[in-house]
Write a structure and sequence with these properties.
CATH architecture of the largest domain: 3-Layer(aba) Sandwich
Radius of gyration: 21 Å
Largest sheet: 7 strands, mixed
Shape: elongated
CATH class of the largest domain: Alpha Beta
Order of helices and strands: EHEHEEEHEEHEHEHEHEEHHHEE
Strand order of the largest sheet: 3-4-2-1-5-6-7
Number of helices: 10
Number of strands: 14
CATH superfamily of the largest domain: Response regulator
Strand content: 15-25%
Distance between the termini: 30 Å
Helix content: 25-40%
Structural class: alpha/beta
Number of domains: 2
Length: 335
């Protein structure tokens, strides 16, 4: 894997209250603190990390720093200093890869994935954004609705996520010939298939491949739809100013933010702010519903939330965007 995939690793740590009778008497003023431990990895304090952190903060503020019987605050410690956390750990928040790389020897904690950067749908992780398989299926559904009958599939074989998106797409819709490697010298091979739609399953950042190939296709006279996936959601085309071919469609795991978040921010929240917000909100709701530190009850409470399906996958839709004037504009959700 080219990158460990972890901009954000957060921990929801909860201490036990000392006696229900005392709590009833003293009330919320003496709630035990819930700490959010923020641990960076990989590239350090980057824009994605800061955006997810900001989204988590917004969810915490919305909940008035409370969940069930617990008061909540966020902590910031150096990486790998979990020994400094002096309270019990109830839940972890981060990208799916970062969570799975922790390698817990005992029963896995309550994991909430802000962004699914793992190429496969990981078990034991509650995800608030769709993963690679959902992207591929959503792209195939949109292609079917578009009426395209001869589709060429391209992929970046060096990217496990691009391959996973391509596999799901191929399984859900007929394609013309075999998938084609996303190299510039393959453009003539794409044109030889006489496609009425080209879908590129996506590339890892820094983004250049789709722009070069799609530009070459247009230069050689191809006028049909161009479409691509988000194989690097930790960076995301929606959060960058990459070169884009006008009219290119993007299938993304990042649907627009919930209206309440946009209203609070009085602007359009970015994809990673939204992911952090959704992850923290889900964790707080599970803690509030369970109102306990018991892992099995926390997981059961999370499974009952509308944020997740029966397998812990996100119930949020993917979305399709179109490139106009150098940026991607929202078109519709892909349910």
């Amino acid at each position: 894997m080219k990158r460990a995939g972890g901009w954000l690793l957060a921990v929801v740590a909860i201490g036990a209250m000392g006696g229900a009778g005392w709590f009833a008497l003293r009330g919320a003023f003496h709630r035990v603190t819930v700490g959010i431990l923020f641990v960076e990895s990989g590239r350090g304090d980057g824009p994605t990390s800061r955006a997810i952190w900001r989204g988590a903060e917004l969810a915490l503020e919305e909940a008035t720093s409370r969940a069930g019987r617990y008061r909540v605050e966020m902590l910031d410690l150096p990486p790998n200093r979990y020994d400094k956390v002096m309270v019990d750990v109830a839940a972890w928040i981060g990208t799916s890869e970062a969570l799975l790389y922790q390698g817990h020897l005992q029963e896995a904690p309550f994991y909430v994935s802000a962004i699914d950067t793992h190429p496969l749908d990981p078990k034991g992780v509650f995800s608030v954004t769709p993963g690679c398989a959902r992207q591929g299926k959503a792209a195939a559904a949109w292609v079917k609705k578009s009426g395209a009958s001869r589709v060429v599939l391209m992929l970046e074989r060096s990217s496990l996520r691009s391959r996973a998106i391509a596999d799901a797409f191929k399984a859900a819709t007929p394609i013309a010939g075999e998938p084609i490697e996303a190299f510039l010298d393959q453009v003539d091979k794409v044109l030889a298939q006489k496609p009425d739609l080209v879908f590129f399953a996506g590339e890892d950042a820094p983004y250049q491949t789709a722009f070069k190939i799609f530009s070459a296709l247009r230069a050689k006279g191809y006028a049909g739809p161009l479409m691509m996936g988000e194989a690097d959601p930790e960076v995301s085309f929606l959060a960058t100013r990459a070169d884009l071919v006008e009219g290119t469609h993007l299938v993304s795991p990042f649907a627009p933010a919930p209206p309440e978040l946009a209203a609070r921010m009085k602007s359009t929240p970015g994809p990673h702010v939204t992911a952090g917000y959704l992850a923290m909100r889900a964790a707080l709701r599970a803690i509030d519903r369970a109102d306990t530190m018991v892992l099995s009850k926390l997981i059961r409470a999370a499974a009952e939330l509308p944020d997740f399906d029966a397998t812990g996958r996100s119930t949020r839709p993917c979305a399709i965007y179109i490139a106009r004037n150098g940026i991607f504009e929202f078109v519709e959700e892909l349910k």
